[in-house]
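Task 17 of the worksheet. Students: predict the tertiary structure of the chain below and write it out as structure tokens. Keep your answer in the requested format; marks are given for formatting as well as content.
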Amino acid sequence: MIRTEKDLPIRNICIIAHVDHGKTTLVDFLLRQAGAFKQHQAVEERVMDSMDLERERGITILAKNTSVRVKDTKINIVDTPGHADFGGEVERIIGMVDGALLLVDAAEGPLPQTRFVLQKALKAGLKIILVINKVDRPECTDGTRIQEVVNHAFDLFFDLDASEEQMDFPIVYACARQGWCTTEFNDIRPLIEGKKTGSLEPLFDLILDNVPPPPAEASVQPEDFRMLISNLTYSDYVGRLAVGRILAGSIKKNQRIQRKSVNAFGAPISENFTVSRLYTFEGLKQTEVEILSAGDIGVLAGSELVEIGDTLTGADVVQALPRISVEPPTLAMLFSVNTSPLSGQEGEAVQSRKLRDRLIREVRNNVALRFEETALPDQFRVLGRGELQFAILIEQMRREGCEFMIGKPLVLFKQGTDGERLEPMEKTVLDLPEDFASEVTALFQQRKGILSKYDLHPARSVNAKSRVRLEFDIPTRGLLGIRSRYLTVTRGEGLFSSQLLGYAPYKGEIPHRTSGALISDRSGSTVEYGLLGLEDRGVLFLGPGVPVYEGMIIGEFNKENDLNVNPCREKKLTNIRAAHAELLVTLSGIKKMSLEQCIEWLDEDEWIEVTPQSIRLRKKVLSSNLRSIKRSERLDG
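Model answer:
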């Protein structure tokens, strides 16, 4: 049934926080308690994490819209990513909302991504509601830590030059996983102990009382319609769908409107089209409507060319709105057609045209990524923010059945006003057991990191081990490949987060990988006997029975140069029986490399071959007699 969506009180909010502070869990309970689901409807946990990769990794990757009805008011909610690599998702939806729930973990307190998203929200003039989540954590039993986190949040507002009005933010204490919150500090303990029952109603009331309604212009003439596109989705039935907030006027189904955009060279272009469908968000569903009015967040179909940042208007005389801008990328990665001998055997051997089209499509849907041509027709550069952002894109393409190759991520340098070389710097916050602090400090100082802060973390773990919080200012180059080493040093107990600070003078050479590679010198299948003879040469990445080719990397050499080896060597058989029984000898261990580990390990003269079934490491030059094994020669060449 098609409804008419008009004259309904509206509030538009987003939920912003550091990764794993409970955003998506809070949205789950907001939807449940607002009646978005039927009484007997089976609902999965983290319903907003719709992508397979989001559910597998337990993080939000894409910003998503939903809505609830509370006291005859429609509240549009945008769930945003918390990882710094996906900050572009946060930046482009800020213009769709008028308020934000700033979610902060009651034990961890504000972290780098908290600062990043809050800075954007304050700059946009959003009304902030501070939500101290996870107040039931063991570290917060006496309430002291909760008060400290509130003070840290207040200091953060002050550091970010918040206005007096923004500094007067309301505070709510919540336990999202149990579905309750309170504005009274003294009610936290009774709610945790079950002496009182609670719900999220205090949070709904704060949203209605503190978040202003969207500014709506009185005119509803068709030519006054304006809408800025902040997101894109796709429907198998009506094609590309544009998502955004209606800033002025109203829009009706079958109305003729104009799209204002720019071409690849930045020149303005326009397109006239008819609106074929209009949708609004109702819970997790898109409900078709006949009309959408100013202030609401809606979905519109009718143009296959619409892109993020475009302005939709009702008349040609209406000026285009400023396009959405995000922080510039700091890393670049090469994508290439798969040229290995095993190309096409495990997936679709993608031609350069298809690879180019797929990357351009991704860049159109993600404003934080950029696309560049290279001098070679089968290689393309994608510019982004972090290794995780690239890994997600690669995994998505891999699951689509594509085969391709990727190169080592390289940092993007700038030139200063005096001609000096500038490189991106990041503030890294580490939360780890105190026992590992000296090793971690040495690791980051080797990567040109400067320790700016060393604090005993007030929050204690359950087993009462003391933890520390370290802050480093470190070049982005120094962070490449450091995450896995950091987790190894901290025995998996360390937390790691970072935020881009800006650009600073070049800090000098940083050692990336001091070891070489074990490289197959022929094609065939690996044999256990051949691999046994290579175990003392380094760490093997492959077990027996795996197809290999000349130039393919099968392990890490324990010296700095490369070593060409024969992993296919079989034991010679004779017709003479040995007098003693042969001992059963097996491989002691294989290091299975994930995609992220391969990206961290990769050197500049190597490719990662990505197929739907396998991830292989290889040299760019396959033939052993055409490449040097010496580190200095192979990297310079």
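Marker's comment: The longest strand covers residues 421-433. Residues 1-6, 37-51, 53-58, 460-464 have pLDDT under 50 and may be disordered.
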